[in-house]
Amino acid sequence: MKTSLPVLMYHSIRKPGRREIMKGMHVKPSSLGWQMRLLSKLGFKGTSLREALQLKQMDPSAKVVALTFDDGYFNFFSDALPILVSHKFSATVYVPTARIGQTNLWDENKGIHMQSLMTKEHLQKCICENIEIGCHSMTHSDLTHTSSDLSIEIYKAKSELELSLGTETSSFCYPFGLYNQEVMNILKRAGFTNAVTMRRGLFSGEDDIFQIPRVPITWHTMPHAYLLKLLTSYEDKRRRQ
Q1: Strands 194-200 and 212-216, sheet pairing
Q2: Of 38, 191, 222, 236, which sits with the fewest C-beta atoms within 10 Å of its C-beta?
Q3: Would the pTM count as exceeding 0.70?
């Protein structure tokens, strides 16, 4: 892959409260709407990470943007999916297997708003709309912590997710963006083919496929910043942030 691939990172698609903690993890539905319209007008195709990697492999000059959504919030189904479908776009949604149909329990007692996550039925409907379901571990735990059971958080998370949804899961997202060489090695042995991080930058052929950098999109990403992130080296200059 000789040309760069923007891998956009989203989380929750809703308007954050004025005093809400971690506002940056939210994007208003109306903002996602103009962002997808802008991609279309610029001639880009919004796809899942799996499809984007395949398209770039076949044609490095392909105008494609990978759209990724972490955590599997219900508002992806209710607010983001209709926007993507209207543009004939797809995306990758990363879900913690044991939290399907629950809430973001990993944020409990941190002052962060609790939100509903998609159920198995929601995820299956997403698959019908060409959405790739990636794995976000079993419980959204820090995989680098010595107490983490990687056989459960990686192997079991993958097998149970595939069994539940009846589809192959090959993409992984590191919870909290934390990982190390041991985690990457186990991902490879478990059958994953790629993994995304929270490192900033555009993905290129020089990057490790298990350390894919992404472009963060937040509630305060305005059109001019969105264009800078998408079309320039703006994010590459922030790779270590």
Answers
A1: parallel
A2: 222
A3: yes
Find, among 115, 122, 116, the residue nearest to 16 by Cα.
115
Model pLDDT for residues 121-167, shown as the tens digit of each residue: 999 999 999 999 999 999 999 999 988 899 999 999 999 999 999 99
Domain residues for the domain of 216 are 7-134+202-236
**What's the CA gap between 172 and 94, in Å, rounded?**
7
Question: Number of folded domains in the chain?
Answer: 1
Q: Domain of 39: which CATH number?
A: 3.20.20.370
241 belongs to a structural domain: no
Q: Residues for the chain: how many in total?
A: 241
* Cα–Cα distance, 53 to 209 (Å, whole number): 10
Contact of 204 with 220, CB cutoff 8 Å: no
Degrees to nearest 5, angle at CA 77 with 74 and 78? 85
For residue 148, being part of any structural domain is answered with no
CA-to-CA distance for 90 and 54, rounded, in angstroms? 14
Q: Extract the tokens encoding 202.
A: 């555009």
Q: DSSP secondary structure string, 69-100?
A: EETTBHHIIIIIHHHHHHTT---EEEE-GGGT
Residue located via tokens 């770039």: 56
| Tokens, residue 207 | 């990057």
